[in-house]
Amino acid sequence: MTVPLQTRPTAPPPKSTFQIPTIDVGPYLSNPDSAEARGIVNQVRDACVSTGFFQFVSLLLFLLLKIHTVLFQTSIIHTGRTGTKYLFLD
User: Fold this and answer.
1) What is the DSSP annotation of 4-71?
2) Which of 28, 31, 48, 64 is the most buried (most CB within 10 A)?
3) Measuring CA to CA, which residue among 83, 56, 55, 87 is closest to residue 74?
4) What is the pLDDT of residues 21-59, one digit of tens each?
5) Could you tell me the residue ranges of all domains in the chain?
């Protein structure tokens, strides 16, 4: 005798509220001893503790990476399939 499996209604999955923190490191790169730079260090620490991920943004950082590419003739910036740029450091 076969017993039909009962199906129960399933609730839709909860919407994710996860966001990767974005941190502007420009002030830190221009003056690492400033109070604003210490705040950035705290943001990085908090992001590491809370999510384990963070994303740096800064025009100055981008320019420094481009200079690295020109000087050492190797890119440490790679573009993923979705167009997102990743930084690889050895």
Assistant:
1) PPP----PPPPPP-----EEE-HHHHH-TTSHHHHHHHHHHHHHHHHTS--EEE-HHHHHHHHHHHHH
2) 28
3) 87
4) 898 888 877 788 899 989 988 998 999 898 888 888 876
5) 22-87
Beta carbons within 8 Å of 9's beta carbon, 6+ residues apart = none
- Which DSSP state fits 86? E
Residue type, 40: I
Strand-pair category, 85-87 with 77-79: antiparallel
Strand, helix or coil for residue 80: coil
Supply the pTM of this predicted model.
0.52
Q: Which of 11, 71, 21, 77 is nearest to 44 (CA)?
A: 21
